[in-house]
């Protein structure tokens, strides 16, 4: 059953003989639980004697905590514990740069910073008591934006971070300045991305219970093992004292990857009360104190030869870390280098700085820096196409990477169908036809992006392991710690196991992570589960199958090489002199292997480590073993009277290798596009004093069904040699180009280029009238408003006789 | 002082004693009656995750005060499936991959159930309007709308068989 990926002459390649369950629309293994409301999410955990908790948060962006009076709260009937920083281990924690206390010690650094917490008999009592806690603050000067934080003599968010720099690095690979000087065309601009909240409909939550010296935490975390490590640090406990169990997760997108204090506070309250405690964020808390996308400001310079070959790129990037770092440091790395794996740059130069502010801490969000990079660099490419007089898809095709390309940072591209994606997205949107017959106030744009399939980030390991246990009733249990955040990962892992084992998907179960019971796993991040965990499950299933066949061979006296598994049975041809072929149920073979003197179970262990390199301090290194690609094209219409944008159509062509389950893969793309449209157009708050004025869904508008454009989703014919059955990751990629292509399409439609997200009607309205996207009364120095671009007619129409998408 | 309250819940008469008539049906269902299939997403009636059916209409249970429930008829997601299987709306979501994380799914299912009870053959515009009332952060709504269309045709074929 072992599978070789090397093509054998004369035999069909594996990609030509994929098992039928691979690539079929298998029903999700958790579908019925979810449609019936039986799936148990974080807030659905019920334990006898369970208490409920509420948190007291800072109303100030920066203040010294002079005193906390909990006496009135503690006297409220039904209150079991009130805690402050003094009740914690007072240890700073964080994924890369430990800078966060579980509850404030001496200072608060953003509006929402946790100061105290209450556990009580019910939620109403806990919230009432929390309101009775009196905190005396000495308000300190705060830095509320990037420029204020970087100014000379700015107040420090953390005393040990001079200049408010949480992290910085710089490199020049190939002499970018020299290449830019020698370039025929150089485009340049400054682009600012935005804080975007994950907006999972389920908020972050935890239920914790102590038994002797150990705490069990039922958490809706995407990364139970990584979260456990951090929680142990935050609680001042040895790793063995913490057990994390994943509940059902109502949306992740990076926001539930264990960088916030909610679970830690819950565990401290549970220890103090000696009872189970549940703490679930309100929607307001989710907006105030989760870890939204990092706003990034890019200064981009891009050089080209006159015939459209890219020469070099230089970026200067400042990113708003907020008050605590979490995973922002790693996001900064991806935001700086990842997009250089798209085009054949001769040289790239970058300076990247992560800057502390007294604002909500930022962190991981689907795309992991890529949407901000694409927002800036993607628009620079669009500007370049206009300057060069080359259609965007053609400019991309001239410069796109291919299989075998190596980026300046040593990203080694194995499978790559980027050019196919560009052609297919152009064809799907009708690019050349629409260019030939432009409609007033409508605009077209295209963008491309690249993403990883797992990223070596948390130490020199990006692997996964899995156990496949064949059961005595003829099924298979896949035991793995990766988990499920809604993407359908457990279903695709079941398909992979089913394909290897010759069992039906209905006969495969896939565990949920439990740090006591399952294999170690990094979890659902970096688009890694299908590729990394899929390979581990595939090997575990192969090995279990080998054991099954060996057992059946011993039991039946036939050579193992003659046996195979199909439809839940072990098969063999009829022996010489016998009429009937062998057909033995898998369960019978497993039972017979157990129920004998010295009997043994049939258990396969599989392991896979991403064939990648741990990047160095300057982000040099092949961060993933496989890269996925997308090309997206959008057509928008702008109402010139109001500036309102309607996205009419959006086409996405994705290279994620073999598509294991088409509806699930489509769902990843469709959902990512929706999230990208929200980031592009509507997701914002009004701010005052360092916090959103109304942190709720009424102000923060996410896309609804009514505003979705017509979507065309296609998958490239592609096969990744190192992937399970040729598959790569698909979870994040389709979000990345969306904001940039909406902006470029608006520029194409009405000649107004928006440089700061989101792309609001107001900015376009002023852009059309005044040439500046800033309202006249707010215009001032240092803004990002840009003069209007040359009107669209300057863009040459392609010759009509050219076939759509034809490469030149 | 607890106030007695009688209403119909999932076709059964229930009597509960509520401390606060201004508390919500959502909290009553989840905390006092153990019906956790109804989800809380925003607590301000905006996201639709907590949608239940009251007297035949889809309402956000986070805004439905318990004091106004006396004598009324409430249906929750727990009522839609049973030993006989799934409601056609639920079946449609299963077959069309209409959910990812699934947290908003009970709300979407209840909103569409209420629509189909009132209008067995809604047109595309009505389906879109109904789905538009509930947030989903995972799917981009494409497969939820597929599920909605499938639910209409499934219900139609089942009704046809019943005749």
Overview in brief:
The complex is a heterodimer of chains A (808) and B (163). Chain A is of the alpha+beta class.
General description of the model:
Chain A: InterPro entries: Ald_Oxase/Xan_DH_a/b, Ald_Oxase/Xan_DH_a/b_sf, Ald_Oxase/xanthine_DH-like, AldOxase/xan_DH_MoCoBD1, AldOxase/xan_DH_MoCoBD2, AldOxase/xan_DH_Mopterin-bd_sf. Chain A: Residues 769-808 are annotated as: Disordered. Chain A: Residues 36-141 form the Aldehyde oxidase/xanthine dehydrogenase a/b hammerhead domain. Chain A: This is CO or xanthine dehydrogenase, Mo-binding subunit. The complex is a heterodimer of chains A (808) and B (163). Chain A has 19 helices and 28 strands. By secondary structure, chain A is an alpha+beta fold. Chain A folds into three domains: 14-39 and 463-609, Aldehyde oxidase/xanthine dehydrogenase, molybdopterin binding domain (Aldehyde Oxidoreductase, domain 4, 2-Layer Sandwich), CATH 3.30.365.10; 45-369, Aldehyde Oxidoreductase, domain 4; 389-401 and 412-455 and 624-808, 2-Layer Sandwich (Aldehyde Oxidoreductase, domain 4), CATH 3.30.365.10. Chain A has a seven-stranded mixed sheet with strand order 3-5-1-12-9-10-11. In chain A, strands 7-15-14-13-8 form a five-stranded mixed sheet. The longest helix of chain A has 28 residues, at 529-556. Chain B is α+β, with helices and mostly antiparallel strands and 163 residues long. Chain B folds into two domains: 3-79, Ubiquitin-like (UB roll) (Roll), CATH 3.10.20.30; 88-162, Orthogonal Bundle (DNA polymerase, domain 1). Chain B has a five-stranded mixed sheet, covered by helices on one side. The mean pLDDT of chain B is 96. At the A-B interface, helix 1 and helix 17 of A face helix 2, helix 3, helix 4 and helix 5 of B.
């Amino acid at each position: 059953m072992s599978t070789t990926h090397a093509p054998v002459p004369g035999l069909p390649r594996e990609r030509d003989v994929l098992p039928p369950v691979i690539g079929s629309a298998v029903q999700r293994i958790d579908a019925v639980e979810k449609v019936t409301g039986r799936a148990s999410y974080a807030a659905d955990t019920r334990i006898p004697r369970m208490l409920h908790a509420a948190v007291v948060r800072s109303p100030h962006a920066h203040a010294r905590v002079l005193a906390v009076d909990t006496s009135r709260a503690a006297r409220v009937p039904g209150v079991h514990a009130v805690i402050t920083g003094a009740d914690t281990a007072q240890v700073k924690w964080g994924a890369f740069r430990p800078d966060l206390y579980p509850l404030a010690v001496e200072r608060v650094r953003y509006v929402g910073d946790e100061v105290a917490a209450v556990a009580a008999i019910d939620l109403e009592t806990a919230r009432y008591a929390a309101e009775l806690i009196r905190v005396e603050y000495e308000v300190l000067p705060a830095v509320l934006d990037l420029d204020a934080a970087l100014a000379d003599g700015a107040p420090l968010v953390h005393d040990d971070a001079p200049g408010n720099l949480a992290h910085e690095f710089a490199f020049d690979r190939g002499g970018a300045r020299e290449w830019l000087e020698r370039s025929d065309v150089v485009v340049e601009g400054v682009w600012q991305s935005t804080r975007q909240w994950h907006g999972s409909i389920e908020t972050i939550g935890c239920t914790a219970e102590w038994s002797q010296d150990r705490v069990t935490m039922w958490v809706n975390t995407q990364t139970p093992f990584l979260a456990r490590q951090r929680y142990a640090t935050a609680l001042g406990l040895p790793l063995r004292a913490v057990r994390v169990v994943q509940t059902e997760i109502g949306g992740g997108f990076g926001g539930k990857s264990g960088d916030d204090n909610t679970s830690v506070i819950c565990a401290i309250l549970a220890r103090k009360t000696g009872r189970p405690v549940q703490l679930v964020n309100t929607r307001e808390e989710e907006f105030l104190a989760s870890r939204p996308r990092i706003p990034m400001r890019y200064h981009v310079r891009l050089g080209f030869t006159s015939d459209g070959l890219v020469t070099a790129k230089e970026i200067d990037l400042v990113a708003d870390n907020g008050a605590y770092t979490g995973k922002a440091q790693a996001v900064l790395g991806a935001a700086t280098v990842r997009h250089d794996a798209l085009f054949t740059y001769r040289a790239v130069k970058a300076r990247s700085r992560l800057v502390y502010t007294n604002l909500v801490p930022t962190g991981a969000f689907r795309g992991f820096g890529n949407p901000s990079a694409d927002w800036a660099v993607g628009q620079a490419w669009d500007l370049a196409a206009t300057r060069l007089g080359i259609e965007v898809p053609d400019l991309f095709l001239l410069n796109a990477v291919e299989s075998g390309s190596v980026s300046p940072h040593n990203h080694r591209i194995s499978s790559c169908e980027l050019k196919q994606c560009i052609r297919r997205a152009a064809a799907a949107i009708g690019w050349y036809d629409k260019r030939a017959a432009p409609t007033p106030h409508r605009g077209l744009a295209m963008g491309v992006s690249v993403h990883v399939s797992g990223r070596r980030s948390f130490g020199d390991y990006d692997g996964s392991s899995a156990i496949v246990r064949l059961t005595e009733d003829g099924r298979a249990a896949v035991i793995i710690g990766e988990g499920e955040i809604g993407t359908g990962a457990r279903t695709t892992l079941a398909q992979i196991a089913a394909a290897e084992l010759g069992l039906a998907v209905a006969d495969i179960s896939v565990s949920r992570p439990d740090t006591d019971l399952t294999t170690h796993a990094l979890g659902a991040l970096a688009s890694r589960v299908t590729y990394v965990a899929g390979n581990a499950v595939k090997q575990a299933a192969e090995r279990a199958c080998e054991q099954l066949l060996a057992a059946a061979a011993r039991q039946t006296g036939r050579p193992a090489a003659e046996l195979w598994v199909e439809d839940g049975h072990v098969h063999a041809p009829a022996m010489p002199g016998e009429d009937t072929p062998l057909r033995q149920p898998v369960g019978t073979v497993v039972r017979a292997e157990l129920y004998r003197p010295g009997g043994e179970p049939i258990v396969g262990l599989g392991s896979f480590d991403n064939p990648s390199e741990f990047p160095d301090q300057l982000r040099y290194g092949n961060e993933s073993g496989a890269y996925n690609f997308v090309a997206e094209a959008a057509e928008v219409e702008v109402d010139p009277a109001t500036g309102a944008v309607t996205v009419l159509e959006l086409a996405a062509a994705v290279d994620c290798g073999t598509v294991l389950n088409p509806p699930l893969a489509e769902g990843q793309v469709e959902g990512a596009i929706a999230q990208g449209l929200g980031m592009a157009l509507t997701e914002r708050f009004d701010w005052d004093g360092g916090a959103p004025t109304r942190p709720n869904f009424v102000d923060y508008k996410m896309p609804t069904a009514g505003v979705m454009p017509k979507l065309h989703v296609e998958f490239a014919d592609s096969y990744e040699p190192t992937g399970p059955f040729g598959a790569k990751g698909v979870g994040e990629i389709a979000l990345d180009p969306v904001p940039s292509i909406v902006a470029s399409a608006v520029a194409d439609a009405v000649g107004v280029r928006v440089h700061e997200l989101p792309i609001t009607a107001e900015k376009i309205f002023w852009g059309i009238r005044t040439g500046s996207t800033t309202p006249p009364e707010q215009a001032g120095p240092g803004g990002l408003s840009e003069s209007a671009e040359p009107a669209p007619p300057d863009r040459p129409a392609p010759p009509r006789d050219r076939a759509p998408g034809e490469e030149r | 002082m607890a106030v007695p309250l009688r209403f119909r819940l999932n076709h059964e008469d229930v009597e509960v004693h509520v401390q606060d008539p201004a508390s919500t049906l959502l909290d009553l269902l989840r905390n006092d009656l153990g019906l956790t299939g109804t989800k809380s997403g925003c607590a301000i009636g905006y996201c639709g995750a907590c949608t239940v059916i009251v007297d035949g209409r889809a309402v956000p249970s986070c805004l439905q005060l318990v004091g106004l429930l006396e004598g009324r008829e409430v249906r929750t997601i727990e009522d839609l499936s049973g030993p006989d299987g799934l409601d056609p709306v639920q079946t449609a979501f299963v077959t069309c991959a209409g959910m990812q994380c699934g947290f908003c799914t009970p709300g979407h299912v209840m909103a569409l159930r209420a629509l189909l009870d009132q209008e067995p053959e809604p047109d595309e515009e009505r389906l879109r309007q109904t789905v538009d009332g509930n947030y989903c952060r995972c799917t981009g709504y494409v497969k939820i709308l597929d599920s909605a269309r499938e639910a209409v045709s499934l219900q139609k074929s089942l009704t046809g068989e019943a005749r």
